[in-house]
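Hi V.,

You were right to ask for the full record rather than a summary. Here it is.
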Amino acid sequence: MRKVRNGRVAARTRSKICKLPVARYSRRMTDELATVVLSAIERAPQWIRRDLDSKDRIVRVQAEESLAAIIADALRKTGKLLT
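Predicted structure:
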């Protein structure tokens, strides 16, 4: 469970709480990121779309990882990748 406190996200991991900074974006930046991600998803191959709906967990995880790589590549090419 994550809760925002004082601009940080408290995430409970193995009974320890680690504090992660909360990213704050302007509306324009969020719209730009959404546009890049949406265009990457629209260009995803049909096999990824089919495998994302698979009942087989391994197939679904492989499709999720492939889609994540496609999205990361699209963000990297546009210079919007957050590090």
